[in-house]
DNA sequence: ATGGTAACTGACCAGCCGTTCAATTCAACC
DNA sequence: GGTTGAATTGAACGGCTGGTCAGTTACCAT
């Protein structure tokens, strides 16, 4: 009993990545076996190795894909007028993008320690690129006198931690909708850096 | 070759917990074997089971001990005058306590999914108790007109995420000392909830 | 000196791990 | 209708897993 109907290579590959993302997020990279992933796809473990050289690459590829998508989407944002608007836009974007991909976000933040050094360096570089986007907004805003920030790097990390925290509790269909959460968090982010004007 | 000198039971127990905490934080619960823990203590794997019924209890005990210590220390805080002072005190306490226990914090936030349901419920209840402390501060402050908060629960989660994020990057002997970090974060926390007075 | 016992070893258990690969199956092409 | 080759199976590899336990050691009280 090999393949059943039609050519599967273009279907099985994405299905493996989806199953791995789902299982890694739920149980953690180290706790998930290749056989579990294969079972979720409906295939034998050996077949996975037609699509990934090993388990580690499966993890690294998921994380890289997520961060590259995040960076691309961030770069595609329209230019906003003024520091407050830029920060509000970033906050809303960050929450929206993360809320829609809870599994990928979870993995990207929790499985860093399971990456081999080379993969870790690559992923870390992408993460830093994204942080730099926010840091630039804060730096410019401070230079323009729009924000009150004792330390730009600290404010960057604090805001990202706050905004990303949404993924820990947000559930579709919960008490608050996505738009409300975005508005509330954008408002808090602006206030936290002492924004004078209102652009939430 | 059994025990070498003196009675070890009061030494080996804590050493096992310390080794487990260290290794779980570094590599993750699922990725650490009982034999690795035993090796770090300088003992054979079987000896671990004189001090813990199984690996799962080792994890649950570490998390429970951490959260109970956190709650006790929080409860021992002197009463602060007014909402701003209370929030500033909480922010400083939270950062200080977490900064000093990076391994325990890491485990408490990352290994929840590796807890069996019964243990998870117990740990989650402790975590919620701690959140309620902050939420009470915010609720009282809002009622007193000191804070501007659209949603108290959201603000609670946002602040905790922001404050806890410090443990992701803070290193002893880094660019900023503990006192500076506490001051900057307490200030941001106050501003984020629209505190009118200054009590950072 | 000797018996008791707390502390620990080291071998063992069944079972799962990531990974490999010869053999098989089946759609597509000639 | 036979051939090709991509897709997949299923068994196997050595090695590691959490956990058990009979046996050994070294301290302590007597």
From TrEMBL, chains A, B:
Q: Which residues bind DNA?
A: 33-52
The molecular function terms in GO held by this entry are: DNA-binding transcription factor activity; transcription cis-regulatory region binding
One Pfam family, please name it.
Answer: TetR_C_24
Keywords in alphabetical order: DNA-binding
InterPro entries named among the record's database cross-references: Homeodomain-like_sf (IPR009057), HTH-type_TetR-like_transc_reg (IPR050109), HTH_TetR (IPR001647), KstR2_TetR_C (IPR041490), Tet_transcr_reg_TetR-rel_C_sf (IPR036271)
Where in the numbering of this chain does the HTH tetR-type domain appear?
10-70
Domain of life per record: Bacteria
Q: PANTHER family, per this entry?
A: HTH-TYPE TRANSCRIPTIONAL REGULATOR RUTR, TRANSCRIPTIONAL REPRESSOR MCE3R
State what protein this is by name.
Transcriptional regulator, TetR family
Higher taxonomy: Bacteria, Pseudomonadati, Pseudomonadota, Alphaproteobacteria, Rhodobacterales
